[in-house]
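Handout, page 2. Input:
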Amino acid sequence: MNYLQQSEETTEPLNTAEKTEISITPESPEVFRIILPPGRCTKRLLNISDVFLSLFVITPLVVAHWKGTWAFIERHPEQFPPWMSFLFGCTLHTSFVLIKELLHMEFTAPNDGYKSVKKIISQNIIVKIYTYLFSLGCNLNWQGGWAALQVVFGTELKGAVIPSAICLVLLLALKGIRNLAAPPVFVALDNKDIAFSFPTRFRVQVSQILN
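Output:
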């Protein structure tokens, strides 16, 4: 009996999981290929190319667009008074915040169904119009706020230093000093997946606010 029990124990099949278990170590060539960083020369070349593209191509085009819109607003002060321009820009941005999720679901959310050429073209047109209106809202905010500050504080040195110092202190208190690091070295590609997305202070979804 002891012999039979011993033979049964020795002939018991091994666990399949133990036979097929594979341990991946950092020395494995597949893992090494995944974690291998790009070469220094390639990385430096891409960084330099990105900086030159930002400074000498994208930035002049963006600045020219902003300057043209800004000059048009300044040439028509009757239609664009400072405070009205500033408030209209704020209203436009607030509207974009409230409807950005709806626009994303309608025009850029993944869809497994078939999309016609007409729908694709209409989506691209809507995205471009939205981007231009967003730019117009930014110009109205900046130009209107700038002109309003000149009306309140004047154009002398004291009128420039006081609001700058106050705003800098407020940004430090709100932990928003990084917002001063604006373009030119900032490049965003036209991607429909993030066309209506932009960061907010608390990153709260609009549906959570309205419910």
